Structures are given as structure tokens and as C-alpha cells.
Amino acid sequence: MAVEVRIPTILRTYTDGAKAVEGTGSTLDELITDLDSRHPGLRERVVDNGELRRFVNVYLNDEDVRFLDGIATKVADGDSVTILPAVAGGAR
């Protein structure tokens, strides 16, 4: 089962510059673990203590996984996952 994962610029150092990578798993947790096996260090940037990091937003087919089952959200072949670090700040 292949799931496309879109990688933000700040995490592309872990994917050799790739904007998107493919992984497998039946849940988001398994998918991230699979990706980390080929792109070491990626998991620790997205997951902390078994949960998604507070300032990292993850979308499954454009739906925020925090409103689904979080890291336990089911994924399926052909799904698309987007990882986006939260951005704050700006000028007045």
C-alpha cells in the first residue's frame, strides 16, 4: 500500500531534497515509522512522546488528522498526507 507524503521545505534535508515521498502503513503512525526507516530523523521532527508534535500540522487528503484519530488515523493506498509546520508571527 503506497501513500504519498508531501514534505515541507524545512524537512527536505531528511528526504534528500524530495518534495514528496511514498510510504506504507495502515495508520499514520506506521506510515511515519516506515518513512523514518528510509529517511532517518524524520519521525523525531514530527512525533514527540508517541503523539504528533504540537506545532506540526498533518493533513490526510486535506483533512486535519487532529480532528480524525491523530497519529492513529487510518491511511489507505492512494491517500495523500501533507506535513506542514505551524507558522506564526509577522509584521505590523
The run of helices and strands is: EEHHEEEEE
Please give the alpha-carbon distance between the first and last residues. 47 Å
**Number of helical segments?**
2
CATH architecture: Roll
Biggest sheet, spatial arrangement of strands: 2-1-7-5-6
Morphology? globular
Provide an overview of this structure.
This is MoaD family protein. InterPro entries: Beta-grasp_dom_sf (IPR012675), Mopterin_synth/thiamin_S_b (IPR016155), Sulfur_Carrier/Prot_Modifier (IPR052045), ThiS/MoaD-like (IPR003749). It holds the Pfam family ThiS. The protein is of the alpha+beta class and 92 residues long. The protein has a single domain, classed as Roll (Ubiquitin-like (UB roll)). Helix content is 17%, strand content 27%. The chain is built from 2 helices and 7 strands, in the order E-E-H-H-E-E-E-E-E. It has helices at 28-38, 42-46, and strands spanning 3-6, 20-23, 47-48, 51-52, 56-60, 63-64, 80-85. The strands form 2 sheets. It has a 5-stranded mixed β-sheet with strand order 2-1-7-5-6, with helices on one face. Strand 3 and strand 4 form a beta hairpin. The longest helix has 11 residues, at 28-38. It is globular. The mean pLDDT is 93.
